[in-house]
Request: fold
Amino acid sequence: MADYSNQLRGSMPEMNRLARPSQFIVPELCNATAISLLVLIGELLVLVLLFAGGEVSWARFSLMSLFVQWVALASAGVLCWSRARLARFGLVASAVLAFLLILIITLVVGIVADRVLVGSLDRGIDFSTIVGQLVISGIISALALRYFYVQQQLREQEQSELQSRIQALQSRIRPHFLFNSMNIIASLIATDPETAESVVEDLSELFRASLNDAGNQVPLTEELDLCERYVRIESLRLGDRLKLTWDVEQTSQVVKIPLLTLQPLLENAIYHGIQPLQDGGTISVRLWYENETVKVEITNPLPSDENRSRNQGNQMALSNIRSRLNVLYGARAELTTTTRDGLYVTSLSYPFANQLGEVNEP
Reply:
């Protein structure tokens, strides 16, 4: 019980970190996609302003485009450079500072543009034009910051809901599996204490993993070791009915995977593919690398319709794993199921790149 409490306390800081709201609402703008989007939105704004009033000409369109793009790109560059510093402030303070930075950049670009157009540094500044530029920039900046804030709130809500589902998946080991394991241990204590001790060790490792952080990525070798421990316990229960073949390319500690991703898939294969069959069957696990992608394929016998209906699952494990992969890798990860030649095939793929435990933004 003490160990259990210590593990829970150890996971609390990480859970609190996940629960805290982000300190800065402006996303990363220093990438090709963000810059392209800024340029496109800037040109759309120019068209709106061009046709809203005044002379419609290529010269005016060019000057407005030059001004808007300078403001947009300079603001993106400054926000990107100061993002880490702004993140140290609270949500309101960082948003206000970002807003003021954009206005300052607009003011500087406006003054420079005004001096270039008049062609002299001695003439006065057209303050009415500068004020109009600041008003337009302020309105657009406020709308953008509001949009980023709403998007952040939606992401945090989705992350919170996903976190709850992941915790439900990882903290849940089927009750029947626990009871069967305890019965196996009890029956082996008198006749084979060494095997009983081994089962206790394997079971403790499974529970340790289920209490671990839901967002943790571990070396692929560690996840495969967890699968082997699970299979050893189930083999004592199912005996010769359970056969398993492994075809795994040599893995490295650099290759990582979200904790408890393969083990639930293997558990589904045993529970829905082997247990309903009187004679059991063979589960095949294949893992290989292809085009900087880790690919896993698990196949198990497909029971008859009658046996399948009695052991129909609720797809909770598959749904949770898909959600976790989507958060970590986006559309680059995929989990599919299909039938092939009388076998039920579960296929998993996720990118080999960025395997240093960093979580990609969705």
